[in-house]
């Protein structure tokens, strides 16, 4: 298991360090928004390799890092896989209703324009 | 009055052209978020010069343009003043609850951290 001292443990902002502007920026990219939508509807953590994103591996890694560093997702190593989950508790506590309204808006936009 | 043929009429996306990602990006900057918060609580349009922003004139103009081109605000010339208002009807129709949850989140963040 990963411990706090492990170099494989990834840096995350504490709940108190999460900022609205950073969250909105993280969600303002279509690829990142798609990742968050899939994570939000998944019943468990999803590995990075689960996602079939239309970007290179390094760009994908960048997008996951932006999501993690803004506090939108939590990433942990499980064996060789990097697993991802939305920090719903933290986001709902800090910004009530925001994540749900963004997810609803993204679903509506996908229905209107076929994106996502 | 400005007409459609006037060169002083500023370009705006139609409601159908407004995209969630663009709106979230526009709101992800602290200066722009502050402008939107003030416009949302104002009872009428506010001129650009009303805002005492901690940025240069050209940066301020850029921020207002990002807000306009993303569909968050409507800008119209009235004489020599550029007047601004939030496109609440369009945003609420496209993305129900989103603007309010962002405004609530911004107020909460300002209360916690003194920003805005």
UniProtKB/TrEMBL annotation, chains A, B:
<dbReference type="InterPro" id="IPR036390">
    <property type="entry name" value="WH_DNA-bd_sf"/>
</dbReference>
<dbReference type="InterPro" id="IPR001845">
    <property type="entry name" value="HTH_ArsR_DNA-bd_dom"/>
</dbReference>
<dbReference type="GO" id="GO:0003677">
    <property type="term" value="F:DNA binding"/>
</dbReference>
<keyword id="KW-0238">DNA-binding</keyword>
<protein>
    <submittedName>
        <fullName>DNA-binding transcriptional regulator, ArsR family</fullName>
    </submittedName>
</protein>
<dbReference type="Pfam" id="PF12840">
    <property type="entry name" value="HTH_20"/>
</dbReference>
<dbReference type="GO" id="GO:0003700">
    <property type="term" value="F:DNA-binding transcription factor activity"/>
</dbReference>
<feature type="domain" description="HTH arsR-type">
    <location>
        <begin position="12"/>
        <end position="106"/>
    </location>
</feature>
<dbReference type="InterPro" id="IPR011991">
    <property type="entry name" value="ArsR-like_HTH"/>
</dbReference>
<dbReference type="InterPro" id="IPR036388">
    <property type="entry name" value="WH-like_DNA-bd_sf"/>
</dbReference>
């Amino acid at each position: 298991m990963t411990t706090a001292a492990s170099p494989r443990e990834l840096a995350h902002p504490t709940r108190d360090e999460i900022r609205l502007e950073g969250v909105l920026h993280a969600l303002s990219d279509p690829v990142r928004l798609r990742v968050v939508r899939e994570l939000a509807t998944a019943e468990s953590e999803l590995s990075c390799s689960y996602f079939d994103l239309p970007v290179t591996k390094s760009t994908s890694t960048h997008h996951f890092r932006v999501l993690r560093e803004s506090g939108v997702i939590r990433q942990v190593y499980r064996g060789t896989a990097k697993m991802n989950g939305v920090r719903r508790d933290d986001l709902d506590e800090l910004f009530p209703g925001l994540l749900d309204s963004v997810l609803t808006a993204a679903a509506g936009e996908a229905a209107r324009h076929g994106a996502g």
